[in-house]
Response regulator
Amino acid sequence: MNTGLQIYLVDDQPAILKALSRLLNSAGYAVQGFASASAFLSSVDAQAEGCLILDLAMPEMSGLALQQALSERASLLPVIFLTGHGDIESGVRAMKLGAADFLTKPVDAERLLSAVAHACASNRRARDADQELGLIRQRLATLTPRETEVLDLIIEGLLNKQVAATLGAAEKTIKVHRARVMAKMEVRSLAALVRMVDRVRHH
């Protein structure tokens, strides 16, 4: 069962909201339905956890417009489009914006549940990765300006002696800075430090 996993439904047709809610509830999901994109945006935090099932063609604000708004807010919420107006162009746009899936109505129940399961798993992985990046950034923020200079040089592969020459400092001083960098970043090897910093700076 999927107890506790939150699914958000946005569709302007009450009958579809009701049917999808019943299906997802029976699979163990917690479901919250909205009749419009604006209602969803005003009620749900863009950083919410779970999955969003979204109708493409709605009055006022379309599904693609909502997806774009979430993207601009750096939301990790995966989007599954359900639409009776499916076309290749809209599908391509949705997938380029990061949609998890694009399904046409009437959708097969098993296909939808499979898409939701994959989207929720993807959301968990993305949130875990985002949390890890946040921790790395917090550790980097604890470094002094000098420790940051030492960090930048040692991850380029410079030896303590070379770092000392570059910064005009004694080698034993660089060893102290290096040890503090490793301790603050909570790593034991240079390779681990390089991977950690690379993740943040190339994300």
Notes: The domain at 142-201 is CATH 1.10.10.10 (Arc Repressor Mutant, subunit A).
